[in-house]
C-alpha cells in the first residue's frame, strides 16, 4: 500500500507560546487508505496519533506526520475499524466490524492478544483501571482485562438492541446509547442502574457529559439528562432533526442545526445567544461541534471548518479542506474543489486533528504562525484579454490559502480604482463578481483597464495582484458561464497552481507552501 505523509514546509512558520488562542494553521497531512468515508476517530497518546483507516491502523508522529508503523504490516484486517482506539499503559486497543478486539504494543504495533466478540463491535471501547468495556451490534456489553483480554464478567450484559457511539465513564459507571433511543447507565460490575428514553433515536447517538448532566440529541430535540438519576431535566425543540451530537463544557452545551447555525445553552436550558446572533456556517452541518483551545469548532458540508468564539459566537477562522495533490478525478476528469470532513474534530496538544473523506489525516496547529500570503491564479477575464465592456460584467478569480485559510471578508476586486461587488465561494476558493445588465449599469470604458484583487488569510498575510485587460466596446459581448459552472477552471481544487508540489523519498510528499 502506498502510504504518504504530506506536510507544509516548516521554515514558512514560526513557533509561538500559547498565552492565547492562535489562528489554526495546517502543519501536515497524512494519507492512509484512500477511502470515501472513515468510520472511526483517531486517538492521540504520548505524541503518537493512532489513525484507523478502513481496515488498517496507522501510527503517525504528531510532531511531523511521519509513519511509525501500521497494523497489519502487510495486507489488511478482516473487517473495517468502526470505533475509536483506546490506550492502556503500553498497549493500543482497537476493534473491527468483524467482532475482533486487538491489543498491540503501542510503540511497535506488535500483536499482544485478540478477543472475538462474535458480533460487530459498534460502540467505541473505554478503559477504566485495568478493564476495557465495549458494546456490540447485537446489543451486548463486554468487560475484559485490558492487559490479558480475559472476560471480567461471568457473561456479557445483554440489552438486545444495537449499541452505538462511544461508551463513556462517569462516576465509576458506564454510559452509552442504543438504537432504540435510550441512554443506559450500568455499573462497572455490569449491573444496570437506570435508562432514559428519548423521543426519537438519533443518527449520531453519542451522549456527552457536561458537569453532572448528559446531553444528547434525538429527532429534532436536544436533551439534558441527569447523570445521577437518568431523569430528563429539560429538552429543546428545533425546526429540523438534529443530525449530530452536541458538544458540552462545564458551563454550556452547543448543537449544530440544519439551518447552518450553532446554538448554545447553559446547563439550565437558557439560550446563550438568539437565532439572529448565532454563529452561522456557509453550508449545512457536516459533523458535531467541539470546544477546544479557546474555540468553538464547527464542521459544514463541502469541507468547511470553522472556529468561533464560544462566548459570543464571533467567527475567528474558517477553512475549506482540499483534496491532496494527485487526488482521483471523477468520471468527467475533474477533481473536486473540496473534500468533506467525516469525523468529529479531535482536540490534541496545541492543535486539532481532522479526518477527511479522501483518506487523509490533517493536523492544524494553534502554536504556529503562517507567514506566507495566499495564492491568486486562474483569472477570468484572463491577463491581456481583448473583450467587450458591455454589461453584464463578470470576473472570476481563484484565491486560496492552504495553511490558514482565506478570510472571506478580506476579498476585494477593483476595476481601476472602482471597487466591484464581490462574493467569495469558500468551497471552490473562487472570488466572483457578477453585475447584471440592468438599471444604470454602465459599460466598462474602452482601452487598457486594470483589474486588481486583494485578499488576506486568517493570519493576516495579504496578496495584492493586478492584471490588464483591453476593452473594445465595438466587439460583440460573449456571455461567460454562470458562476455555478465555473468550478472547472484550471486548478480544480487539487492543490494545483503556484504552491503545488510533490517530493519523493521517505514515503513523503511536500505540499509547496
Using the CA coordinates, give the radius of gyration: 25 Å
SS field, number of helical segments: 0
Structural class: mainly beta
How helix-rich are the residues, as a percent range? under 10%
Give the overall silhouette: elongated
**Whole-number mean pLDDT:** 88
Alpha carbon gap, first and last residue: 27 Å
Q: Hey, roughly how much beta strand do the residues contain?
A: over 45%
Residue ranges: pLDDT <50 for 5 or more in a row? Answer: 7-13, 15-20, 490-513
CATH class of the domain at 375-488, please?
A: Mainly Beta
Can you summarize the main beta sheet? 6 strands, mixed
- The tally of beta strands, per DSSP, is 44
Q: Find the CATH topology of the domain at 375-488.
A: Immunoglobulin-like
In CATH terms, what is the architecture of the domain at 375-488? Sandwich
Strand order of the largest sheet: 31-32-33-3-1-44
Protein described:
- There is one protein chain.
- The protein is mostly beta strands.
- The protein has a domain of 114 residues: Immunoglobulin-like (Sandwich).
- Helix content is 0%, strand content 45%.
- It contains no helices and 44 strands.
- Strands 31-32-33-3-1-44 form a six-stranded mixed beta sheet, with no helix packed on it.
- The radius of gyration is 25 Å and the shape is elongated.
- The two termini are 27 Å apart.
- The relative contact order is 0.12.
- The C terminus is likely disordered.
Amino acid at each position: 500500500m502506498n502510504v504518504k505523509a504530506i506536510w507544509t514546509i516548516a521554515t514558512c512558520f514560526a513557533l509561538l507560546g500559547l498565552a492565547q488562542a492562535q489562528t489554526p494553521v495546517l502543519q501536515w497531512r497524512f494519507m492512509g487508505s484512500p477511502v470515501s468515508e472513515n468510520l472511526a476517530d483517531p486517538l492521540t497518546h504520548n505524541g503518537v496519533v493512532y489513525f484507523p483507516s478502513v481496515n488498517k491502523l496507522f501510527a503517525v508522529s504528531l510532531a511531523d506526520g511521519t509513519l511509525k508503523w501500521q497494523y497489519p504490516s502487510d495486507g489488511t484486517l478482516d473487517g473495517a475499524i468502526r470505533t475509536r482506539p483506546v490506550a492502556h499503559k503500553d498497549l493500543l486497543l482497537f476493534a473491527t466490524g468483524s467482532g475482533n478486539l486487538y491489543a498491540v504494543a503501542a510503540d511497535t504495533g506488535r500483536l499482544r492478544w485478540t478477543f472475538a466478540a462474535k458480533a460487530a463491535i459498534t460502540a467505541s471501547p473505554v478503559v477504566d483501571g485495568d478493564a476495557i468495556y465495549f458494546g456490540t451490534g447485537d446489543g451486548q456489553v463486554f468487560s475484559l482485562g485490558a492487559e490479558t483480554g480475559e472476560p471480567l464478567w461471568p457473561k456479557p450484559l445483554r440489552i438486545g438492541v444495537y449499541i452505538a457511539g462511544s461508551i463513556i465513564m462517569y462516576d465509576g459507571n458506564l454510559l452509552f446509547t442504543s438504537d432504540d433511543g435510550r441512554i443506559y447507565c450500568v455499573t462497572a460490575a455490569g449491573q444496570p442502574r437506570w435508562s432514559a428514553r428519548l423521543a426519537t433515536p438519533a443518527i449520531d447517538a453519542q451522549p456527552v457529559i457536561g458537569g453532572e448532566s448528559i446531553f444528547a440529541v434525538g429527532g429534532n430535540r436536544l436533551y439534558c439528562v441527569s447523570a445521577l438519576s437518568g431523569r430528563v431535566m429539560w429538552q429543546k425543540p428545533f425546526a429540523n432533526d438534529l443530525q449530530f451530537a452536541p458538544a458540552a463544557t462545564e458551563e454550556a452545551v452547543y448543537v449544530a442545526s440544519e439551518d447552518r447555525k450553532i446554538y448554545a445553552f447553559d446547563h439550565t436550558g437558557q439560550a446563550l445567544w438568539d437565532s439572529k446572533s448565532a454563529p452561522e456556517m456557509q453550508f449545512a452541518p457536516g459533523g458535531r461541534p467541539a470546544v477546544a483551545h479557546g474555540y468553538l469548532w464547527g464542521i459544514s458540508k463541502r469541507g468547511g471548518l470553522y472556529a468561533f468564539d464560544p462566548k459570543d459566537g464571533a467567527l475567528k477562522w474558517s477553512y475549506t479542506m482540499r483534496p491532496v495533490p494527485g487526488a482521483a478525478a471523477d468520471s468527467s476528469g475533474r477533481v473536486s474543489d473540496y473534500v468533506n470532513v467525516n469525523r468529529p474534530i479531535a482536540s490534541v496538544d496545541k492543535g486539532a486533528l481532522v479526518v477527511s473523506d479522501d483518506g487523509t489525516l490533517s493536523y492544524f496547529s494553534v502554536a504556529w504562525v503562517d507567514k506566507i500570503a495566499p495564492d491568486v491564479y486562474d483569472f477570468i477575464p484572463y491577463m491581456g484579454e481583448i473583450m467587450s465592456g458591455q454589461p453584464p460584467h463578470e470576473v472570476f478569480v481563484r484565491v486560496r490559502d492552504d495553511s490558514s485559510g482565506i478570510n472571506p471578508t478580506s476579498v476585494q476586486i477593483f476595476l481601476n480604482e472602482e471597487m466591484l461587488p464581490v462574493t467569495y465561494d469558500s468551497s471552490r476558493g473562487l472570488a466572483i463578481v457578477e453585475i447584471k445588465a440592468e438599471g444604470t449599469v454602465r459599460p466598462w470604458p474602452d482601452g487598457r483597464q486594470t483589474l486588481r484583487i486583494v485578499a488576506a488569510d486568517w493570519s493576516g498575510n495579504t496578496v495584492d495582484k493586478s492584471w490588464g485587460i483591453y476593452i473594445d466596446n465595438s466587439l460583440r459581448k460573449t456571455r461567460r458561464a454562470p458562476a455555478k459552472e465555473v468550478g472547472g477552471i484550471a486548478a480544480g481544487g487539487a492543490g494545483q497552481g503556484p504552491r503545488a508540489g510533490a517530493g519523493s523519498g521517505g514515503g513523503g510528499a511536500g505540499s509547496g507552501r
